[in-house]
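Fill in residues.
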């Protein structure tokens, strides 16, 4: 039964932590924050969740609440070039091809900061594309929810929206290609490890629709990953502490062909087997 963050109705207000029943019909409010759960170790966290499930402070029909990105005080980090498809796409787009070839096989993975929790958007919210970019793509990524000691506390879906034109111009522009308004969608909820059987072979799908017509779809599997989750986590936690836990996007294995770029009004749906699907509309956000 997944953990979620939600608001009552559609008018904002306080964000609450909850769990969703297996029929996906009801949300039970829990008297905790995600940060406080991720400060506990695995057995204590599970015991606390089970205890809270027995004493939910409120119950709401799922269709009446607004799901928010399941993240509070955590930072979101991301790994790159963890699938061959991503390596090949960067080589195709970049003026500096060998950096991608080298990092794909290097001992040290590419890991970069993506977003603070408060910058993330959730299920059905709008993701942004930059006003100064002309080649923009979704990046569907299995996203690890990590506790303060670096153990996997759950799995969710991430859309690491990126500008290929800005990164392609110069790899040193990576932060600008990755970090901008509403570029990080996370959701719809967090599946606990106990609820997912074999994370080494989960199907990941993506579909982009424009005016109700699908313009591109793709499918891969976590079995195509070139690195292990443990390796990525070890490098992230090697020289940083995360007292409230962290989210780690594990890289994309799905990159559309060069003719495809996102436009305002597109809908992107990412599905990950055993977790669910994350749908977002796209908007080109002007300079502020
Ligand atoms: O090297 C740039 C970023 C790659 C990335 O985000 C990915 O492979 O998912
Ligand atoms: Mg990525």
């Amino acid at each position: 039964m997944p953990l979620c963050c939600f608001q009552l109705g559609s008018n904002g207000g306080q964000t609450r932590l909850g769990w969703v029943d297996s029929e996906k019909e009801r949300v039970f409010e829990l008297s905790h924050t995600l940060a406080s759960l991720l400060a506990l170790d695995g057995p204590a966290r599970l015991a606390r969740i089970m205890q809270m499930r027995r004493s939910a402070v409120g119950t709401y029909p799922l269709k009446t609440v607004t799901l928010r990105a399941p993240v509070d005080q955590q930072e979101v980090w991301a790994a790159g070039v963890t699938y061959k498809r991503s390596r090949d796409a960067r080589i195709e787009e970049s003026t500096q091809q060998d950096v991608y070839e080298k990092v794909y096989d290097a001992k040290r993975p590419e890991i970069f900061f993506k977003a603070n929790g408060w910058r993330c958007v959730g299920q059905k919210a709008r993701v942004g594309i930059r006003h100064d970019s002309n080649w923009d793509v979704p990046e569907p990524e299995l996203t690890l929810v990590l506790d303060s000691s670096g153990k996997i506390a759950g799995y969710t879906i991430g859309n690491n929206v990126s500008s290929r034109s800005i990164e392609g111009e110069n790899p040193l522009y990576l932060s600008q290609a990755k970090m901008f308004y509403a570029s990080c969608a996370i959701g719809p909820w967090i599946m606990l490890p106990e609820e997912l059987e074999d994370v080494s072979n989960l199907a990941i799908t993506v579909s982009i629709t424009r005016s109700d017509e699908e313009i591109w779809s793709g499918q891969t599997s976590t079995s195509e990953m070139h690195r292990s989750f443990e390796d990525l986590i070890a490098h992230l936690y090697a020289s940083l502490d995360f007292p409230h836990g962290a989210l780690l996007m594990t890289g994309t294995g799905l990159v559309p062909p060069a003719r495809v770029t996102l436009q305002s009004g597109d809908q992107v749906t990412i599905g990950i087997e055993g977790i669910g699907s994350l749908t977002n509309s796209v908007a080109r956000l002007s300079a502020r």
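The two ends are 40 Å apart (CA to CA).
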